[in-house]
Amino acid sequence: MKILFGVVSVNHIPINEISILSKSVKKHFLINHDVDFVVFSDVENLPNIENVIYINVDNNHTKLTTYYQFQKLLSLNYVNLDEYDFIFVCDSDSVFVNEVLDSDLLTHELSLLSHFGKINAKDLFNQWTDVFELNNDIEHTMGNFFGGSSNVIKQLLEFTNKIWGKYKNHNFSNTGFFSLHSEEVVIIKFLSESNIVEKRLTSSLDYYQSAFLTDFKGNGNLLNNLHNFKLIHDTKYFFKLYDSIF
């Protein structure tokens, strides 16, 4: 199958992060398929990073505050999603440390990371309730990695475009509408209005507990327990450990 793995980097390119992530994708991510590692960026004079494809995004868009909040979703407007069977997006400060299998990501139309521990979506995102109602029984998700079939991602992108098009020029500073969690809120709302059954990928901050993802916060114990995880986030904190992993 043809897979898109997308990263967004506007205004600057974190070369070290993207380089190590691209290497880990080639080594571990759905290696039995044809995977395009794509960076969506408005940066000129882009660095030559092996196995990285660049797609230029509209510089005017990237200057809007609202674009920053939805950038991983909105950047997908710049690629023909019909060329791919599955589309995934990821934060640049991430690295795969073990093999990601078809059974991890290709068995459902949409795969999402559950947040560390369960939390009520409406309680977490109550600043959004003036804009649209959030169901009270939907588990909180994280936006640093998600993806699914081309058909579902196109539906999610259309849903996102409508929300962004309606509110991008409004000032919601008083309600906190465009929070750091905008993509997560949009995905939660999208799920509440669709019949899609998503797969929840596990996450944990306990290095002794197996999960799809963990965050690295400077605890050296992670290095001794890499077998418990497939994806590590916040790798900007542990560049010195890269040589030990690779």
Your description of this structure?
The protein is α/β, with parallel strands linked by helices and 246 residues long. The chain has a single domain (2-245), classed as Spore Coat Polysaccharide Biosynthesis Protein SpsA, Chain A (Alpha-Beta Complex), CATH 3.90.550. It is 28% helix and 20% strand. The protein has eight helices and ten strands. It has helices at residues 15-28, 59-62, 65-74, 102-105, 121-124, 150-167, 182-192, 242-245; strands spanning 2-8, 34-41, 53-56, 86-90, 94-96, 110-114, 141-149, 199-201, 213-215, 231-233. Helix 1 (15-28) links the parallel strand 1 and strand 2 (34-41). Helix 3 (65-74) packs antiparallel against helix 6. The longest helix is centred in the middle third of the chain and has 18 residues, at 150-167. It is globular and about 50 Å long. The model is unreliable at 174-179 (pLDDT under 50).
Number of domains: 1
What is the spatial order of strands in the main beta sheet?
3-2-1-4-7-6-8
Give Rg in angstroms: 18 Å
Total helical segments: 8
Tertiary shape: globular
Q: Which CATH architecture?
A: Alpha-Beta Complex
Query: Biggest sheet: strands, sense, closure?
Result: 7 strands, mixed
Low-confidence stretches: 174-179
CATH level 1 class label: Alpha Beta
- The average pLDDT score comes to 84
Write out the CATH superfamily name. Spore Coat Polysaccharide Biosynthesis Protein SpsA, Chain A
SSE topology string: EHEEHHEEHEHEHHEEEH
Number of strands: 10
Structural class: alpha/beta
Rounded to the nearest angstrom, the distance between the terminal CA atoms is 27 Å
Instruction: Estimate what percentage of residues fall within beta strands.
Output: 15-25%
Helical content class: 25-40%
